[in-house]
Amino acid sequence: xxxxxxxxxxxxxxxxxxxxxxxxxxxxxxxxxxxxxxxxxxxxxxxxxxxxxxxxxxxxxxxxxxxxxxxxxxxxxxxxxxxxxxxxxxxxxxxxxxxxxxxxxxxxxxxxxxxxxxxxxxxxxxxxxxxxxxxxxxxxxxxxxxxxxxxxxxxxxxxxxxxxxxxxxxxxxxxxxxxxxxxxxxxxxxxxxxxxxxxxxxxxxxxxxxxxxxxxxxxxxxxxxxxxxxxxxxxxxxxxxxxxxxxxxxxxxxxxxxxxxxxxxxxxxxxxxxxxxxxxxxxxxxxxxxxxxxxxxxxx
Amino acid sequence: xxxxxxxxxxxxxxxxxxxxxxxxxxxxxxxxxxxxxxxxxxxxxxxxxxxxxxxxxxxxxxxxxxxxxxxxxxxxxxxxxxxxxxxxxxxxxxxxxxxxxxxxxxxxxxxxxxxxxxxxxxxxxxxxxxxxxxxxxxxxxxxxxxxxxxxxxxxxxxxxxxxxxxxxxxxxxxxxxxxxxxxxxxxxxxxxxxxxxxxxxxxxxxxxxxxxxxxxxxxxxxxxxxxxxxxxxxxxxxxxxxxxxxxxxxxxxxxxxxxxxxxxxxxxxxxxxxxxxxxxxxxxxxxxxxxxxxxxxxxxxxxxxxxxxxxxxxxxxxxxxxxxxxxxxxxxxxxxxxxxxxxxxxxxxxxxxxxxxxxxxxxxxxxxxxxxxxxxxxxxxxxxxxxxxxxxxxxxxxxxxxxxxxxxxxxxxxxxxxxxxxxxxxxxxxxxxxxxxxxxxxxxxxxxxxxxxxxxxxxxxxxxxxxxxxxxxxxxxxxxxxxxxxxxxxxxxxxxxxxxxxxxxxxxxxxxxxxxxxxxxxxxxxxxxxxxxxxxxxxxxxxxxxxxxxxxxxxxxxxxxxxxxxxxxxxxxxxxxxxxxxxxxxxxxxxxxxxxxxxxxxxxxxxxxxxxxxxxxxxxxxxxxxxxxxxxxxxxxxxxxx
Lengths: 300, 642
Prior knowledge:
The structure holds two protein chains of two kinds.
Chain A: H1 6-24, E1 28-31, H2 36-49, E2 58-61, H3 68-81, E3 85-88, H4 91-95, H5 100-124, E4 128-130, E5 147-150, E6 178-181, H6 189-199, E7 210-217, E8 220-223, E9 238-243, E10 256-257, H7 263-272, H8 290-296
Parallel strand pairs in A: 1-2, 1-4, 2-3, 4-6
Antiparallel strand pairs in A: 5-6, 7-8, 7-9, 9-10
Helix pairs in contact in A: 1-2, 6-7
Chain B: H1 9-20, H2 22-30, E1 33-41, H3 47-57, H4 63-76, H5 86-89, H6 93-98, E2 105-110, E3 114-120, H7 128-135, E4 140-146, H8 153-164, E5 169-175, H9 184-198, E6 205-210, H10 234-240, E7 253-255, E8 258-263, E9 266-272, E10 277-279, E11 283-287, E12 291-299, E13 307-309, E14 313-318, E15 329-332, E16 338-349, E17 361-364, E18 369-381, E19 388-389, E20 399-412, H11 419-422, E21 423-427, E22 434-443, H12 459-466, E23 472-476, H13 483-496, E24 501-505, H14 506-510, H15 521-540, E25 544-548, H16 554-563, E26 569-575, H17 578-584, H18 589-594, E27 616-619, H19 625-639
Helix pairs in contact in B: 1-2, 13-19, 15-16
């Protein structure tokens, strides 16, 4: 008789969820954001279907403002694992020269991320999309089902969620509607790091501290990742030992000063830190229920 | 801010351990035990506050969150100057505005002994389905009771549902003790009342803890306010309670979720082991096909395993090529699960539209979806008294004991023995919402040979049972033409032949079903329409129906003919000249009509439209009733009943 560890239980639950989607949905996709949670989700997917390859494609909704190291990592990861990657960029946004610097974080995120995602889902007519969100991230996520129903307009109705009992998931939808599926719902940030440590899962080097060029802007350390970043008068990029706790668009993702250069260093730092994970992301600060609002509108 | 802000001592120790030896710390983490629990109880019993308190006291609230909480407490808080911990958990905008919990929230925290996932469930009756959602995956339930209010309907409802869903360990948190002056008497009274209620449930352990989630009494450490209480604090109880279900020692069950077929050389069956243990080389049987084979390998990404047990997600390959697909169950040879298309189950109804017995729904078990219906709602359960109540439908949040029939058989175990193998959900076929949760009690084996669906017993089946072809013999003719007399004779003769018959005539219809009708044309039409409908039902029931009505209008006779299938309607024209009828006049109606005492009398001031092309035409001017009856019998035996 085997007594499963905490992580083995979480792993089995995630695998069960992924297999259920593969067995019952006709056109699923796995959303891939290149971050640590995505890395864990993909690793679990490789496990779920072994020795078969993933029975669905992987899709990255690219805002064109991701860190360069993220894109390099994506290309290598996809190649190493023989994944079928689809990259979607909102061409309307590109045509508008969308930039977080000129349009602000809210508009940029809405156009490039939320609208881009909806476009991609409509284009490929996916009936289920895996996302790497966790319930411990944020209050409205804590309320969301593992199989989360979306209307044909991609909207989430938090007050009218389907009851979700045991591990029996209701993924019935009508034409045009879809499911967002969150196999990492019950993982915590510590679980993710512990699992990366235990399974030796590759992650983007930006999570580790290194000397990088940054400027301090509105209390946030922004990395100057390319020459699209307009410097204000008097702003001079400084080389600082920094790392990132979450990854997104570089102009919107704050760095933290850190000396954590190894995985265990990061975990140690994370455990001792007193600020929560999403603090580094500018998008959440708008209003109290902002994530719920964005999710209702179709954000992941 | 008057809330406790200093960290409990073990949090400080933990930080030291992390700083000193992070690798050692991570190793320790791997071997922590794990518990899933729910908090439930009535509105305002303090569930969200309790969870907020647990998160806060176990360092799960970061400083920026604390700053937001302080801010929110001032704005939306219900605790005056104190922190309102409920605001940490009630994450939806509507919840914060209304100060209530609508949906279940999952929260995560850990101590140095255990990791926890807690589902905070709503207290309002209308959100009971969300409470059941949380309870379905929990090992332990913390049921809160407001010490001031004692046991409420929701306390009973939640305890019942928790019990129904198979949770065996309950912690009754008697909360808000600070508001009853930490009174032992109050606490004991609630305990006694709860124990007497729970005597009818199947809990294997009940722990009563008096506490104040708001003030922190008996949450982490023993309360100084209640020295009369000698039991554990809530956290101590959560850290030590043994709620393991021991499903590894139950019989082996692998519900096949997905067939893993990367190439022609590999055929694996993937799924999560529902119970028991499987070893390489074990003989197994696939159900419902009942084909046996041996386990060739247990495949995982990290390498093959020699054995695997409950809750592991694995892929099995077998020695023999046998046909297995999603929905099947691979199991050990002894202690096999049952296979059935009919069973009894407890059902929690979760939709505004009530459960209608006889209506088809989708039924989804752990690995199979089929269509099914509740064939019988045996009784409802009153959650207050636990008594059985009769009912025709099951309304939102009601629990009923039902017989369920399926289109395809499923492989199952009773829910109480094996939750994963005995649970199902019901899905509305039109709008796809989840409308019910079901727990199988037992299979209904007696009925396996009878087709389950009531509407599948068709006219043919009923008629076959009676060994006859159902028809209507529709006698038409003037008043006193001899319709009833001949129809009576025919019925007698059919009865002797062993046929199942029924005679509808003015006497047994006009006095009951149609007593509201008179003799004006509209009423005569309605009279015949109703008789036609009744005759149709009786034909459907497999009977030979005889009707004896003047039925003077062609249109109505045509209408009735059109209700039936071809060869089911036999029009019998009792053609007796009106002079003979008037001569007979057994009821004196012609006399009255002549005097003008009866209006609308057929043949006088109301017409009789003779049939054109009646199947049987009896010329009664020179035919005795007995002979007419024999003629009819001969004709129908030859043409219709054979």
